[in-house]
Amino acid sequence: MANQLPATIDDTLTMLEGAGYVADRSLATVLFLALRMGRPLFLEGEAGVGKTEIAKVLSAALDRPLIRLQCYEGLDVSSAVYEWNYAAQMIEIRMEEAAGDVDRREMERNVFSEKYLIRRPVLEALDGEPGRAPVFLIDELDRTDEAFEAFLLEILSDFQVTIPELGTIKANEPPIVIVTTNRTREIHDALKRRCLYHWVDYPDAARELDIVSLKVPQANQRLSREVVHFVQKLRELDLFKAPGVAETIDWAGALTELDKIALDPETVSDTIGVLLKYQDDIARIGEGEGRRILDDVKAELAAAQ
What we know:
The chain contains 14 helices and 9 strands. By secondary structure, the chain is α/β, with parallel strands linked by helices. It folds into 3 domains: 9-81 and 120-199, P-loop containing nucleotide triphosphate hydrolases (Rossmann fold, 3-Layer(aba) Sandwich); 82-114, no CATH class; 205-298. The strands form 3 sheets. Strands 2-5-8-1-9 form a 5-stranded parallel beta sheet. It has a two-stranded antiparallel ribbon with strand order 3-4. A hairpin with a 3-residue loop joins strand 6 (160-163) and strand 7 (167-170). The model has no long low-confidence stretch (mean pLDDT 91).
């Protein structure tokens, strides 16, 4: 069945590749262990290296719903877990008062029932069907504050959440939890201890070329090689923000749309905004650094033939 968990590390690699994700064995190993042990997986790394994509691929490969909690500064319980439908509750209270003979305790039980509960991503993730629990993506956790981190501890350790008016709601089957962070700040050890950990690094040239070939199959082979090697050398520079794999794919796609079969200085200059997102980085490449890198790439690839 499509939603069965992989039985081995090799099966995990095959599952990822079948869903269009080119992973190394270390990532496949920790993902396999997280799935078999029922533990959350904490993925850390630079933006654009494919952390979020892992959750999407798992959802597709295992045929399970993907529930995404996109984190941001100021995220609170009402946005992440639940809130009450206050308007509907007030209507119910007015109707019961109009009917007379109001039992206050019974009224309180009625208005604070699941009928008036608005479920947010956390509660939705705990409501999965047995055998088809969702993939729960907690994306960019480092954008929230420590108070929200502390709130997540109960969820990640016991897969349950406590609602004062209703009590504790526990998952019938724990969801597959993927937590990502771009490391803009450190996450507390208490949360990390509840997860298996993996640092998602930039791929080497061979794996990045495989990724580009998979994601932009229409790109000229020579162009793909030059793009990958150019990006690999860019990451060696002290840039404000090095390009991620997502930018490599975008650049290869953009150059293919322009019918390019190889890189040249003018093309690099005209399209560098697809690859780099900060003006200081773009200016540096435009001051001759880009031409030097391109010359090195052409020489190395020619020597390798």
